[in-house]
Amino acid sequence: MISAQSVEDDPLALERQVCFALSVASRNVVAVYRPLLEPMGLTHPQYLVMLALWGRAPLSVKELSRMLALEPATLSPLLKRLEAIGYVTRSRDAADERQLAVTLTAEGAALRERALAIPPAVVAKLGMSLDELRDLHAVLTGVIAATERT
């Protein structure tokens, strides 16, 4: 057994693991979003899809998959659910029948106005400054880039 004093010297101490900190932080941040998204009928992964579409719709499933770093097999059920609740439509791209295009419905586009309240609510719940959150975002983006190079 390792004593508490040697945690900083132990390379396998749970508290020192980047993967542990990222995992717990991710779960906790998603939990902050949950009550904000529920009134809109969205889960956090669905919210990420909507964010991508609000910024660049229409998008192909392939483009969405790349943007969200999700496998198409993971993305497909999210899109089916968003289509079932009336926020998106999926249709074959006229220019390339092999591509499935995802488009916002009028209801999905209108939902963006309600979603504008989410970022400031998250910032308030986290109790961190915008500068701290921008710095964190930059560091995490660097981690993502580093893992994509491996």
UniProtKB/TrEMBL annotation:
<dbReference type="InterPro" id="IPR039422">
    <property type="entry name" value="MarR/SlyA-like"/>
</dbReference>
<dbReference type="InterPro" id="IPR036388">
    <property type="entry name" value="WH-like_DNA-bd_sf"/>
</dbReference>
<protein>
    <submittedName>
        <fullName>DNA-binding MarR family transcriptional regulator</fullName>
    </submittedName>
</protein>
<dbReference type="GO" id="GO:0006950">
    <property type="term" value="P:response to stress"/>
</dbReference>
<dbReference type="InterPro" id="IPR000835">
    <property type="entry name" value="HTH_MarR-typ"/>
</dbReference>
<feature type="domain" description="HTH marR-type">
    <location>
        <begin position="15"/>
        <end position="145"/>
    </location>
</feature>
<dbReference type="GO" id="GO:0003700">
    <property type="term" value="F:DNA-binding transcription factor activity"/>
</dbReference>
<dbReference type="GO" id="GO:0005737">
    <property type="term" value="C:cytoplasm"/>
</dbReference>
<keyword id="KW-0805">Transcription regulation</keyword>
<keyword id="KW-0963">Cytoplasm</keyword>
<dbReference type="GO" id="GO:0003677">
    <property type="term" value="F:DNA binding"/>
</dbReference>
<dbReference type="InterPro" id="IPR036390">
    <property type="entry name" value="WH_DNA-bd_sf"/>
</dbReference>
<keyword id="KW-0238">DNA-binding</keyword>
<dbReference type="Pfam" id="PF01047">
    <property type="entry name" value="MarR"/>
</dbReference>
<keyword id="KW-0804">Transcription</keyword>
